[in-house]
Amino acid sequence: MGKLHAFFFTIFNIYKKLNSLQRLKETASMEIPIQSMIDINDGLHSQTPDESRSAKSNIIDNHNFSNGLHAWYANCCDAFLVSPSVEEPYNRHVVVKNRNEHWQGLEQDITTKVSPGFRYMVSARVGVSGECLEGEADVIATVKLEYPHAETKFLFIAKTTVAREKWENLEGAFMLSDMPERVVFYLEGPTPGVNLLIESVLVMCEDKTAPCIYTEEGNIILNPEFEDGVNNWTGRGCKITLHDSMANGKILPKSGKFFASTTERTQNWNGIQQDISGRIQRKLAYEVSAFVRIFGNNVTSSGVRATLWVQTPDSREQYIGIANAQATDSDWVQLQGKFLLNGSPSKVVIYLEGPPPGTDILLDGLMVKHAAKIPPSPPPVIENPDYGVNIITNSNLSDGTTNGWFPLGSCALSVMSGSPHILPPAARDTLGPHQRLSGSCIQTANRTQTWMGPAQMITDKVKLFVTYQVSAWVRLGPGATSPQNVNVALGVDSQWVNGGQVEINDAYRWHEICGSFRIEKQPAKVMVYIQGPAAGINFMLAGLQIFAVDRQARFKHLRRQTDKIRKRDVTLKFDSSDMHGTMVSVKQTRNSFPIGSCVSRTNIDNEDFVAFMVKNFNWAVFGNELKWYWTESQRGNLNYKDADELLKLCDDNNISARGHCIFWDVDNTHLLIWFLLHVSDLLANQFVPPDPLANQVLACFDQIIDPFLDNTVQDWVKNLNKTDLNTAVQNRLTSLLNRYKGRFKHYDVNNEMLHGSFYPNRLGPDTRANMFKTANQLDPSATLFVNDYHIEDGCDTRSTPEKYIAQILDLQQQGAPVGGIGIQGHIDSPVGPVVCSALDKLGALGLPIWFTELDVSSINEHIRADDLEVMFREIFAHPAVEGIMIWGFWELFMSRDNSHLVDAEGEINEAGSRFLQLKKEWLSHAHGYVDDQCEFKFRGFPGTYDIVIFADSKKTVKRFVVENGDQDLPFVVPIHS
C-alpha cells in the first residue's frame, strides 16, 4: 500500500488546480489585550494613559501622538500637533481644522490589526473648538470597510457630545463579521467649520485569553495539541471527542497527551474543523502539517484531506484542497501541504475530510504557519556530458552476439539480420550524419509476460540533470491480431520512467520509436529494457540509441531559423527631402506574436499576479471558468460570473482570449475504471517490472488523472437519455456562443478527442462534426480548434501526430470547419528535434498550430528554465506555429508541481527570468542614418515600434506597427504632422 500513498498524494496535488483560491486580508500579530487606563477628567487637561500597560494591547499606532502625526491621515482637511509645555505637560493633542464636511477628520488604517469574530473596545479622549462652535458638538468614532467587488460600508462605533473647553471620553465597541480588503478607523462628527481635538485613541481586543492572530511558533491554529480539550474545534457534520488513548491502549498520541477523533460521520466531507477567519494574510504561502490516522468500519486505508472552506464578501463559496495523505488504521501518518490565498474572504474554515462514512478520522496536532522560504536551486554541475555519445553497450550488435544485453524474465534473446542500416529519423535530426547501422537486431522470443524483453544496466552511464534522447527501430514478429505497444522503459530504482513508445499494427515493417528522459535524483540502479507486446508475441529491436542532447548547439540553428521565419524587412520612408543624413533609432516596444497564459478567477484578486500577467502576455485562456461543468454544474443553473470577470480583465488590458473549452470528450468514470484495472498490479509490484498499459497511464499521469478530478462530464449530463442529451448539447452551444459572440477569438470545441469519446458514444459518430458546424454558425468570427495532449513527445500511442492528422481529416471530410490545431504541451525533458518532427507532420495540413497549455517541470529551476527555452525556441522557430499559451506561471496555481515561473509570494525564479530574457531577445532594435532616398531600412519582428528622430537639435518620437508578412514592408513616416 506504500505506493498508494504516493498515488493519492499526486492526485491531490493536481486536485488543487480545480479549486480557485480566494483572498484573505493581511493581518498582523497582536498581544493579549488589557483594559484601557484613560481616566475620566472633566477638565481640559487629562491624564496620559499608562504606556506600559496599554502599549502592547493597543492596535492604534502612535495613539497619543508622541511621534507627531506618524501613522495618522487627515481626510480632506488639515491637522497639526499641539505639543505639551512645562506648564501643561499632558496637553499634547492634535487639532483637525479646515473641515468642510461632517465626515472629515483624522483616520488610521487598521487592516492588519483586526480580525473577524473579535470584539474591539474603543476609548478616545476628544474635544472641540473653533469660532463656528455654538455650545456643543458631536464627535463620532467610525470604521470604514472597503471591499474589492462590493460597496464600501461604514460601521458606527460610538458618539459623544462635547462642549467648548471640555474633554470627553468617547467609548464604544465593534466587531467585524467578515474581513474587508481595507479597514480604516476614524474620528468625525462636528459640523463643518468646527475643529476636532484628539488627545489619545486606544482600540484593544476584548479577548484576554487568546491571541487574536498567532500562537506559539507562528501556528495560526488555536489549541493545536488539544491541551485545552476541544476548545476552538467543532465537528463538521459529525461529533468530535478528546482521547488520551483508544482501542484498549493500542492507539496512543503521536506526541503530547491528547488527540481528537470524529464520530458519527455520515458523509465523506464530515470531519473536525476550526474557524481561522482573519488569522492568515493574503498573498503569503502557508505550509500545513498534521498527523492523522483512521479507525473503524473495517477500513484499513483511506485518503484524508485537509480542505479550506472559503466564503468571500460577495457570498461566493470555495472549497480548496490544501493537503493530503493516505492514512491507515495501524499508525499515524503525516499530512502535509502548501497553499496561498489571493484575497480577503469573509470567513475561512479548515477541516479534515475524505474517509468513507462510518470511519473515524483521528487528528494529533495541526500546524498552519507561514511557509519557510526555499532557497533557489543552484545550477547543476555537469562534467563531460558526452553529447551525442550512445551509452548503450553493443547497440549495433556488430559482433553478432548479445554481449552487454540480458533477458528480463524467462524470454530468450538471439541476433538476426534484416534490420535498417540508417538511424531512425528523430536521431538523425539530432545527431546529423552518423555511422551506418550493421543491419543486425535482437529478437526476443518465448515471452510469457508483457514486460519481458532485452535489458541492459546503465547505472554508471547516466548523469544527473542531463536530458537523454531515446531512439530505436522495432518490429513485431508474427502472431499479433491487434495493435501492440512497444515501449522503451527505464527502471530507476523502484520507479518506472517512460523512454518512448510506439503502436504497431503489422508484423512486416520496422517502426521508429523515440522519446526522452532525465533523472534528477541519484539512483542506486538504472536499467533500460524494451517491453510491451502481449505475451507470446516476439519482437525485434535494432540500433537503440540513448545519448545526451546538446541543446545549445540546437539553439544556434533555431536562432537562424527564427530570424528567417519571424522577421521581415521594413523600409521607413520619410516625407521630407531634408531628412537625408538624419540619425534615427528604432526600438520595438511589443512583439505581436501571441504569447499568453492560463488565468483563473481567483488569480485576479492578487494585484501582483495581474501586474505580471498584463505586462508579459497578450493572450489569455481560462483554466476552468468556461468549461461546461463550471458554467452549468447543476442543470439549468448557469454561472458565467467568473468568466465575465476574467473577460473584463482581458478587455480592459487589450488581451485576446481563447475559449477553453465548449465540451470535453473524456468521461472520467470509464477512464477511472480503466485506470484501476491496469494500475492495480503495477502498484502491488513496486512499479518494476511494469504493465505497459499502466506505464502509459503513469507516463501521462497529469493529463490522465485530471478528468478523475475535474469531473469533465457532469453527472446530470451522464444521466440524460439520448434525446435530452442532444438537447443539452445544443443548449450549451447556443448559450455559450451567443453570450460571447465575437469576444473569444478561438474555441477548443471538444477537448481531448483522441483520449475520450463520451459524446460520439452516446449521440453517434457525426456528433463531433456537428459541434464544429453549430459553433461556426453561432460565431463565425471564432477559429475552431481541436485540442489534445502528448502529440509532440512520443510518450503516448493514443495521440501520435499521425492519429491526430487522421482525426482532423475525418472531421473535415464530415464538413467540420476545423480552423486550428491545438497541442497542449505538458512535456517532460523535451528534445527539440522530436518536437520539431511532430510539428513538421502536423504542419502539412496547412492549419495554424498553437501550443495551448504549455508547461515544463523540474525541481531544479535552472533545468526548468532550459526545458522552457527548448520549447519556446522550437515553437517560435517553426513556421506552422502561430501562438503559445503557457498553462499558468504562479506557484501553487499550476496543474503540475515545480513548473512555475514566479514563486508563491511574487519572486521571479530562474525559469521566469529565462522567459523574460527570451521575450526581450524577440524585440528588434536598429539605429543609423536616413539614406539619400530618404529611407531607413531594418529587419525586425512584427509588432509595435517607436522611432526616435534626431533633427534640428530636437528629438521626435513617432509610433508605428509592423504587421506579419514576408515581403519588404514600406512605411511612410510623416515628419511635419
From TrEMBL:
Residue numbers annotated as active site: E853
PROSITE patterns xref list: GH10_1 (PS00591), GH10_2 (PS51760)
Domain GH10: 580-918
InterPro entries: CenC_carb-bd, Galactose-bd-like_sf, GH, GH10, GH10_AS, GH10_dom
Gene3D superfamilies in UniProt: Galactose-binding domain-like, Glycosidases
GO biological process: polysaccharide catabolic process
Domain of life, per lineage: Eukaryota
Keyword list, A-Z: Carbohydrate metabolism, Glycosidase, Hydrolase, Polysaccharide degradation, Repeat
Pfam families, A to Z: CBM_4_9 (PF02018), Glyco_hydro_10 (PF00331)
Molecular functions per Gene Ontology: endo-1,4-beta-xylanase activity
Similarity remark: Belongs to the glycosyl hydrolase 10 (cellulase F) family.
Protein name: GH10 domain-containing protein
